[in-house]
């Protein structure tokens, strides 16, 4: 079928809207008409020089829409279902079976390479050349996307489907990191470094959990103001001197939990230094290759924990977030600014400049 999609042909080039041909869903695949798709910081991996993400490619991994067709062997998803598209996983390894699909050994192959697992192209351009379309098992910067029964999550039809896409990755990562991976609870102290979509979702989740001290750290005052509105009890500008010392002073020795969303080495070191003895710092940021930490801090029982997708199971966690939103307790939609798909380059620039927290692209088709 003919679709329109935003294609990235070079790591340093613009997205171009192109007419492409998408194959019918094969075994285990689901065709989704995209109503809205979030732009996530992880999509910037396509901008890293090198061959990690093959080009040309359609990125986008926070899609939401309506199922138009299913391939052979698909169960639990039917035509007409409203769905949120999340990350993909193999479903058969020990981690997947144990409810930790984010740590699937096939995570890179299923999500970050954007290449078909069987080597057969599903998307071609006007010249017949292949365009990679398996970014996080979906490639949803498009009017239509192919997902799998593993990463397509049916949701209630009375929620605003065009705004639900960010629940598939960024919002899920922040909220589940607080609630599941770290286990923030009533009376706890919690600090978030980076008040983007992931960090602000974590702030909202920590408030839901009953944390009594919630500290947000960021460079943008507009995001700190929003953090206060969403549940942060204190905010700090990341450009200030000794942020970790300020947090220790605010909490009488340090927070029990910290979450870094930036992957900036100095910020990660500050997050670990903000912990009390026996505290835990979760790392969800992508992009760094090395961190330098004070070994003396770790000797006092502090733990650094890598987290993928909040350690959530999307099929159970995404419907919970929607129900919390319905109850008015998880207003994730306050993070969203919408753009037509054809304005994807403007959306990307605005996100980089900190003008918006979570761009959501609305295809016209």
From TrEMBL:
Residues of the Enoyl reductase (ER) domain: 15-358
One Pfam family from the record: ADH_zinc_N
Cofactor(s) needed for function: Zn(2+)
Origin: domain of life: Bacteria
EC number per UniProt: 1.1.1.90
Source organism of this protein record: Actinomadura algeriensis
Family statement: Belongs to the zinc-containing alcohol dehydrogenase family.
Protein's name according to its UniProt entry: Aryl-alcohol dehydrogenase
Residue ranges of coiled coil: none
InterPro entries per record: ADH-like_C (IPR013149), ADH-like_N (IPR013154), ADH_Zn_CS (IPR002328), ER (IPR020843), GroES-like_sf (IPR011032), NAD(P)-bd_dom_sf (IPR036291)
One function term, GO molecular function aspect: aryl-alcohol dehydrogenase (NAD+) activity
CDD domains: benzyl_alcohol_DH (cd08278)
Keywords attached to this entry: Metal-binding, Oxidoreductase, Zinc
């Amino acid at each position: 079928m003919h679709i329109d999609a935003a294609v990235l042909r070079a790591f340093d080039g613009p997205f171009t809207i192109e007419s492409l041909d998408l194959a019918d869903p094969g075994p285990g695949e689901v065709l989704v008409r995209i109503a809205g798709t979030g732009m996530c910081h992880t999509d910037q991996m396509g901008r890293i020089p090198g061959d990690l993400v093959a080009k040309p490619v359609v990125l986008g991994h926070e899609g939401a829409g309506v199922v138009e067709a299913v391939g052979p062997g698909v169960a639990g998803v039917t035509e007409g279902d409203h769905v949120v598209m999340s990350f993909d996983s193999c479903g058969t390894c020990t981690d997947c079976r144990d409810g930790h699909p984010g740590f699937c050994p096939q995570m890179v192959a299923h999500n970050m390479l954007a290449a078909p697992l069987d080597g057969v192209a599903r998307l071609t351009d006007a010249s017949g050349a292949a365009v990679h379309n398996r970014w996080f098992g979906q490639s949803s910067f498009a009017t239509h996307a192919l997902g799998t029964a593993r990463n397509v999550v049916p949701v209630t039809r009375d929620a605003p489907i065009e705004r639900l896409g960010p629940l598939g990755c960024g919002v899920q990562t922040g909220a589940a990191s607080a609630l599941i991976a770290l286990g923030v609870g009533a009376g706890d102290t919690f600090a978030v470094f980076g008040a983007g979509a992931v960090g602000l979702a974590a702030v909202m989740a920590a408030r839901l959990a009953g944390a009594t001290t919630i500290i947000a750290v960021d460079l943008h005052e507009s995001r700190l103001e929003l953090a206060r509105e969403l549940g942060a009890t204190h905010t700090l500008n990341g450009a200030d001197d000794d942020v970790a010392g300020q947090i220790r002073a605010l909490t009488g020795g340090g927070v029990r939990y910290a979450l870094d969303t930036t992957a900036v080495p100095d910020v990660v070191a500050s997050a670990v230094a903000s912990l009390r003895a026996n505290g835990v710092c979760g790392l969800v940021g992508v992009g760094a290759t090395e961190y330098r930490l004070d070994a003396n801090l770790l000797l006092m029982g502090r733990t650094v924990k890598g987290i993928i997708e909040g350690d959530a199971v999307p099929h159970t966690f995404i419907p919970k977030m929607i129900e919390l939103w319905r109850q008015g307790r998880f207003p994730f939609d306050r993070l969203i600014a919408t753009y037509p798909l054809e304005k994807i380059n403007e959306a990307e620039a605005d996100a980089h400049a900190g003008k918006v927290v979570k761009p959501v692209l609305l295809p016209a088709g």
